[in-house]
Amino acid sequence: MLVAPPERDLWALAEADPSISAAYSAATGVAVDEEALSLYRLWYDLAEIAGYVGLFHREHGDTADAAEAWRNLRHFLRPAARWPGLIAGHV
Fold it and tell me: What would you measure as the largest C-alpha separation in the chain, in angstroms?
């Protein structure tokens, strides 16, 4: 439907396989904005963090789901590992 920018849906694919951006551009004639890919990746990380913080802000039990959520939150709270360019000021 072309409502959202392609980068919103391509960021995870392009992260796993950088050739996806070139293949998309070749197939559609639309250039992929690499900065927009980074924006949507960062947006995803921030949305995940917000969701997990919201979960732990509410009353929750000591369950397997809560333990998994805690591991996931800790994963997303490692900006130096996940975003080394951002920490270095190069994004």
Answer: 51
Q: Give 4-24 pLDDT, tens digit per residue.
A: 899 999 999 998 998 999 999
- Quote the CA–CA distance of 70 and 39 in Å, as a whole number: 24
With beta carbons less than 8 A apart as the criterion, state whether 52 and 67 touch: no
Burial of 40 (0-12, 13-18, 19+ CB in 10 A): buried
Can you give the pTM of this predicted structure? 0.78
Give Cβ neighbours of residue 7 (< 8 Å, ≥ 6 apart).
32, 33, 36, 37, 39, 40
Where along the chain do its domains lie? 6-87
Structural contact between residues 40 and 7, judged by C-beta atoms closer than 8 angstroms: yes
Cβ neighbours, 10 Å, residue 91: 13
